[in-house]
């Protein structure tokens, strides 16, 4: 109950000592204010625990920052040491995190084998039986619409949230959003979901719609499986394959739905991923050619330790979508080496891919530059 009782995804700081009681009698160990720690990382300082304005998954993430960073969401905690030697373990710098993953022996697939593999990701048209559940016009900038569609597998349906600008009468360009890890773990109620949490209001202000499908494993469709990193690798591999197929179908149906609506431009659909949404779900870019371009925030592509048929070695070089990648130089979660490998491995022509590192950690990115680069990329394509 630590995270639900802590101050996350909020608009202001709360008085300390009131929220987030931890197992050792301390309050506010996560949320409220990011706290400086004694260790250094990459020659700079590090904050941990997340802040009131952060999504809840930042509770488990480190955020390297220059020591002179004076953000209003930074804070520190004082402690009385029983012995000066208690500080000794914290003199060592924190090492960069590199996820080695499972080592799966395989060889890169030939084009013939890959074509056979790809057949499992083919999607047949169906009657979506789309049902608009409500339209909420309470926000000053956008109309929030919740739509439900049929998927055609496991008797499943999927909700799609659409945030479209008010007083817009021309067919809309659409940006399909893939969120961070908190939406796979402890998402808010779907009717409380807002693009404001990720600062995406600038997309609506630009005259475009943000389309947010509840992909398998997110929002009100969380995974029911109890698999962990210690589960047998065969079970993990099967789950990864099934998830990739489900995401492929979910994405295809979402774009099918948008293309049925006369108020949307059928030829202007873009991919936007943030953190986790810029990693594994990029597998859908391989098969979904209707995306005009993609923007990846603080991502690094599908891990290179998945089953061979889903692994980055096999599918990243075959992605041809124009891609903009915006990353943090001091990102502890997605190391720079992994980001550069994904970028270099992309099959996208060099003139249609771009990688920018900001002087930041995992999240947030410098907002003004993020907005400028994102809108510039969308307008280019």
UniProtKB/TrEMBL annotation:
Gene Ontology molecular function, alphabetical: hydrolase activity
Domain Dienelactone hydrolase: start-end pairs: 250-348
Query: Could you tell me the superkingdom of the organism this chain comes from?
Result: Bacteria
SUPFAM superfamilies, per database record? alpha/beta-Hydrolases (SSF53474), C-type lectin-like (SSF56436)
InterPro entries (alphabetical): AB_hydrolase_fold (IPR029058), CTDL_fold (IPR016187), Dienelactn_hydro (IPR002925), SUMF_sf (IPR042095)
Q: What is the name of this protein?
A: Dienelactone hydrolase domain-containing protein
């Amino acid at each position: 109950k630590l995270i639900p009782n802590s101050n996350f995804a909020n608009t202001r700081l709360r008085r300390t000592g009131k929220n987030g009681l931890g197992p050792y009698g301390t309050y506010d160990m996560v949320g409220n204010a990011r706290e400086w720690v004694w260790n250094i990382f990459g020659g700079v300082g590090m904050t941990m625990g997340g802040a009131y304005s952060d999504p809840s998954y930042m509770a488990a993430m480190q955020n390297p920052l220059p020591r002179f960073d004076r953000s209003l969401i930074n804070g520190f905690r004082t402690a009385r040491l029983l012995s000066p030697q208690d500080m000794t373990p914290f003199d060592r710098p924190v090492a960069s995190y590199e996820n080695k993953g499972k080592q799966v022996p395989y060889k890169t697939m030939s084009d013939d084998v890959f074509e056979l593999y790809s057949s499992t990701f083919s999607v047949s048209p169906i009657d979506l039986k789309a049902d608009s559940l409500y339209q909420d016009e309470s926000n000053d900038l956008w109309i929030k619409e919740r739509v439900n569609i049929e998927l055609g597998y496991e008797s499943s349906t999927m909700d799609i949230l659409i945030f479209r600008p008010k007083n817009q009468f021309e067919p809309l360009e659409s940006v399909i959003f893939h969120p961070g890890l908190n939406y796979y773990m402890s998402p808010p109620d779907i009717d409380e979901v807002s693009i404001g949490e990720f600062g995406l209001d600038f997309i609506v202000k630009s005259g475009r719609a943000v389309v947010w499908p509840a992909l398998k494993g997110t929002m009100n469709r969380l995974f029911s499986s109890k698999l962990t990193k210690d589960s047998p690798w065969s079970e993990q591999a099967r789950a990864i394959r099934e998830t990739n197929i489900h995401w492929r179908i979910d994405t295809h149906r979402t774009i099918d739905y948008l293309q049925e609506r006369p108020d949307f431009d059928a030829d202007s659909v873009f991919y936007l991923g943030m953190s986790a949404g810029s990693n594994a779900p990029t597998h859908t870019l391989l098969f979904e050619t209707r995306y005009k371009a993609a923007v990846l925030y603080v991502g690094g592509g599908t891990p290179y330790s998945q089953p061979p048929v889903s692994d980055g070695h096999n599918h990243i070089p075959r992605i041809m979508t124009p891609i903009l990648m915006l990353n943090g130089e001091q990102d502890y979660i997605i190391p720079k080496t992994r980001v550069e490998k994904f970028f270099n491995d992309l099959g996208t022509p060099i003139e249609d891919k771009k990688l920018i590192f900001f002087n930041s950690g995992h999240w947030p990115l410098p907002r003004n530059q993020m907005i400028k680069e994102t809108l510039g990329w969308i307008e280019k394509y």
